[in-house]
Predict the structure.
Amino acid sequence: MPTQNLVREQSPATDAPTPEELEWARQHRRAALRRGSLVWSLRLAVAAVLLVSWQLIGQINPLFTSYPTAVAAAAWDEITSGKLVTAIGQSFEILSLGLVIGVVVGVVAGLIIGRYALVASSVEWIISALNATPLLAIIPLIIVWFGLGLQSKVVTVFVLTVFSMLLNTAAGVHEVEQNVLDVSRAFMATEWQVFRKIILPSAVPFIMTGLRISIGRALIGTVAAEFFTGISGLGGQIQTYGAAYETDYMLVPVLTLMLLGVLLTGVARWLETTVAPWRTK
Amino acid sequence: MTAATTSRKRTHTSKLAIESVNRSFRSMADRKRAKFVQVLNDISFEMREGEIVSVVGLSGCGKTTLLRIIGGLLEPDSGSIRVDGTPVNGPGSDRAIVFQQPSLLPWRNAIRNVQFGLELKHTAKEVSTARAKEALELVGLRDYAQYYPKQLSGGMQQRVGLARALAVDPQILLMDEPFSALDAQTREGLQAELLDLQATTKKTIMFVTHDLDEAIYLSDRVLVLLPHPGRVHTIIEVGLPRPRGTVAEVKSDPAFITARDRVAREIRAGGV
């Protein structure tokens, strides 16, 4: 990663900090630490309040919300019996397959649509319409086409992710500076070189944003597809336990999905800043 | 000297020859009416090898359009561009452009930006690295090869852009107000450096600017365009010897002042 200091005409100075600067830095660090610990204690307090109220209210009628200790026991049971790991594996397979296909197709189509105005004006309207449609509504149709197996679940995730990838990539292509395109024309770049060396790298930050949005949608797609089709994965567990009114067990996959979403979005956020460090100001 | 008037007969000696170039822009004024604006009207001039010619004129005189036509980024409606007597059509590696904005690729460090043009021509890696280093050296950025555009000042970014143009070893350098976005000190430093650089590389340079001091200081001749439509008004010999000193030194030279007054008068002569 490049260093962040702004270099001026002279070579970078190697100045040692003065005692005042050292003292100030120490105080600054200490103040930051104090503030950090205050924030974290407040967060823990909020978590404690929530958990205790959940525990108390949940025990009145466990069917409605269950309560933390019951959920923890259910989670332990699920983990030790290996059911949770199996479910995560099944869901993750659907999620990753659908997401990868959605990303690849979305990026390629987005590059083409972003670059060629005629292609854009002929298909963009339908893409916007589809992007605005709650696509979960067509899951029954997908099942008719692809059956109840893995295929239709992957297709659901694909359909939910591809449009946001496509629209974000296309937006990235529009951001390419005309100046830079002129430079490449003056150097007689071929269309393929323009795509590979200018448009694709320029669009990377936008593709990463699309990826972050798509991960959330892919999770929704996975669970929804599992509801509708063969009972498997985390969605299947929710369905099964929900139908049996076992709220504590039902909440385990829900919390797992929450964790998975936070984790994957975190990874995407990290990628956003790492893959395109030149974007960060 | 009468080179400007006699060179028309000696076409074979001119590096760059512009012959009767016309260009207009067409757009719709409203839903029904089209509007044609003639931007360049019958532009003809020639440049000798190793010469620096500045193009000046009020805004709307088509300076940038002319440069883009010569660079092959725009097509003329009629007329021709010849390099060494051979007509050229579209961009070519005999000409390289430096724009007002550095237009660097932010994800590439300085040397990889300089290599960009060579890379597009599939130049061997060792050759392109060596040439890029040489070009960076020429613009005084040897120690900054690994720096990213964001880490460089505006003046240094513009130098990287210049190095990128030099790296492909063009015969003609087309510069479109390359220093106009920089502060005065940086600009004057770069002007002097450009003269040094031209003395070593002997490039033929066409320099578009609206800064008359810059035009006189850099050029052997100044081409004055008049606007609406853009047309050649006159070509003025600067008559300052080379090598020239710093901007401050040259500015007090009587020949500089004479040439500057003359150019200013000629620009106004066209009226507004």
